[in-house]
Amino acid sequence: MNIRRSAAALAAVAAVAVIGAPAAVAAGSSPSPSGAPALPAGLYGSTDPKYDGVWRQSLALLAQHTVGVRPAPQAVDWLTGQQCANGAFAAFRADPSAACDAKVAVDTNSTAAAVQALAALGGHDAATGKAVSWLKSVQNKDGGWGYTPGGPSDTNSTSVVIGALAAAGEKPAAVVKDGKSPYDALLTFALPCSGESAGAFAYQPDKKGALAANADATAAGVVAALGQGLAAEAGTGHASARCSDSGTATPARAAANGAAYLAHALAATGHLTSALPGAEDQPDYGNTADAVVALAAQGGAGQAAGPLRWLERHATVWARQSGPAAWAQLIFAAHATGTDPHDFGGTDLVKALDATGPKPVSHSAPARPARKDPDGEENGGDSGHTAAWIAGGVGAVVVVGAVVLVAVRRAGRTERRP
């Protein structure tokens, strides 16, 4: 996911070697260009928000809510102020007082992430309602969504929208275009249980229609197939030890197969490997965090124990360099596995995230919303909502545009099985 989840093709990065620095950092962590204007009040993070402002703000607010933090009003106001009159969000609007026109590049990922955050906070039904209406209006005929309106559907974008629909009280299975639901689209990206990529999700088909395994897309797809989103709750089922094509293809089966793929990919080292150019031999911290959420959502916290321990040992240095979205991803991993976010390998994730933005109003016990199954029915009071992902870079990174990240995700990375 780094849905980055993922889906979240909100920023692109170019690798720059930095000795001793973690290889992958969250999108939006690139240095601000020299002479950049002062950042808006209420915005989380200290880097240029051009490509990821709404995404990182949404993740920060959602993560705070997940751990019982009431964010500062100005932080919430900044996010709601980014919305266009038609309900959509762009990655960042430098002048939110100006009306959105055709030059404002609205996208599904920013919009869906904002819906998840604002729905969790409560009291923003008008804003989330308009956003959901816009998302429905740009649904593709295959039932899915691309990053930009009208663009070809991909796993990550479809997943983050599923999370938004569930968060807003919609039944994703009932949101159809030409008879196709988001789950129908997801199933078209799922690889069969044969070969070295068995059970994975592809980002999207290549020009010849072939599917290539993509760990980022797989983590996003697993969570979305379960009807959850970014702040997913631990599941009560059992992760499949192996991929299975028996019976009818269903979202639940695709989620189990995807989790089996991730478990295999993580087994040797406890972490996923970056697919970005120049970083192929480096850990992908963000995708590993998303994989932890996916494994826990599918089979319970115990299924994610190995990579969770790896994150606790290694990922906080990455998060310090990367900013609010990275801290939020670690909080989501802690939340999904029942890990104390105030003592994550010795680091207080909540304090670290709080420090990247305006001082929160208060801290209290976190809310735990009921999970919705893929059919839209509530399944107890021990689950949550969401989908997707910002991609990581290597060491110091330079933001070069969302198109590059989309290309990287399309290329994917096939994890080899022994």
UniProtKB/TrEMBL annotation:
What CDD domains does the database record attribute to this sequence? ISOPREN_C2_like (cd00688)
- Domain of life where this protein originates: Bacteria
Where is the chain membrane-spanning? 387-408
InterPro entries linked to this entry = Terpenoid_cyclase/PrenylTrfase (IPR008930)
Q: Where is the signal peptide?
A: 1-26
Region of interest called Disordered, as start-end residue ranges on this chain: 353-386
Record's protein name: Terpene cyclase/mutase family protein
Q: Which UniProt keywords apply?
A: Membrane, Signal, Transmembrane, Transmembrane helix
